[in-house]
Amino acid sequence: MGRGFRLIFAISLLLMLMGSCLGSSVGICYGRNADDLPTPDKASQLAQLHKIKYVRIYDSNIQVLKAFANTGIELMVGIPNSDLLPISQFQSNADTWLKNSILPYYPATKITYITVGAEVTEAPSNISAMVVPAMKNVFTALRKAGLQRRIKVSSTHSLGVLSRSYPPSAGAFNSSHASFLKPLLEFLAENQSPFMINLYPYYAYRDSQNKVSLDYALFESSSEVIDPNTGLLYTNMFDSQIDAIYFSLMALNFRTIKVMVTETGWPSKGSPKETAATPDNAQTYNTNLIRHVINNTGTPAKPGAELDVYIFSLFNENRKPGLESERNWGLFYPDQTSVYNIDFDGKGPMDMTPETNVTSSNGTWCIASSTASEDGLKNALDWACSSGNVDCSAIQPSQPCYEPDSLVSHASFAFNSYYQQNGATDIACGFGGSGVKTNKNPSYDKCLYMIAGNNRTAANNVPAKPSTSYSTHNEVSMWVFSWMLMISVLLF
Description:
Layout lengths: L1 H19 L4 E5 L10 H10 L4 E3 L5 H6 L6 E6 L4 H6 L1 H11 L8 E9 L12 H14 L7 E7 L3 E3 L7 E2 L4 H13 L4 E4 L2 H7 L6 H4 L7 E2 L6 E2 L2 H15 L7 E6 L14 H16 L13 E5 L52 E4 L5 H12 L21 H15 L13 E4 L31 H22 L1
Parallel strand pairs: 1-2, 1-12, 2-3, 3-4, 4-5, 5-8, 8-11, 11-12
Antiparallel strand pairs: 6-7, 9-10, 13-14
């Protein structure tokens, strides 16, 4: 009897330790407010290609849910503000929504979170009163299906939910939202759900350049900002904003609620006055963010604390209203080519080796024009791979440049190879009007575009395997410790 108890205790302890090994994670938001995006199947393939393991969507679109089935990618599904009223009013509506929108696709589609409403305190109409009743009805529907522990329920917020965020220790929720926030926080604490926040240091910098330095917003600051109340040192705005949330929660005596960042990022293009919206700054912010998160650095107030973050967004979205920057947050263009290089493993700019950082002789590459006709691209691609003497083996199935499996992507690789092999001249990038020159290296993952003077193909130009990271060593050590502890308990 005693031995059986010790076995149960040891297994429970091991599972607990395994959970603590998971660490922080980085996902991506898949918004679809555009009329030129690839199909959900292509978006799913793109996420898999770049080893993205966590994706947030803003509704429960059937095609999207099906596209992510059997991929292993964990999905955060949203209930839009427009659907809050019926779901908050009647339990039967929540039951029906779950039955029709979630259960037919689960668990093949690995749904782990449901967000009920989005930034409701910023909504033009006062819909915040509907959020908690809707959350409770969704939770009850999940409990009826036996999924309340596997799928967490929460709601997302903007930083505007705070009345004060600086210094972080003085962080406080806006009192005008008290009637909404108190029951919401009670629900989150009771059900071990995270407080979800959308954080954008870009906006803080853009709107207060005289108070916030660009380096501080981009995780590049060499100086420190000191919280006068706690003495804590901050080297970036992201940590400062996260801790402002934690201190706001603690001020209301909610100390156990985990914070999750459901949106953050940096735009790659903006209006003339948005001078910080550039590909270089976007790459810098997101690269530093990923490294910061996956190293389990935590924040000054929560050192080493797990923090899950979702980058906004997968694609540029051309139908979003507002300034130019609003339509340029994507890591990828709608044709699935990279806006800039990024690595979700946090080991450096994705797809790059030292050699690919070298520009060609005239600093340009040749890619397929996004305005070229499909027939024009097909004919040009066929010619390049035959009469043009381009080695197109790298764009064949299972080869490094086959994915994304799109005509534009394949043609871009072939066009550039011909262009570089033939002197990188304007004529060599003609292709009947289907080719266009760019000064951005279009390489990605192990698909490395040829540069002048380098005749190796992408198939042979594979980056060296990176060294094992510190976090991996920690994870292995924890596993070893867990097993040794379990064995010692069993043998005691």
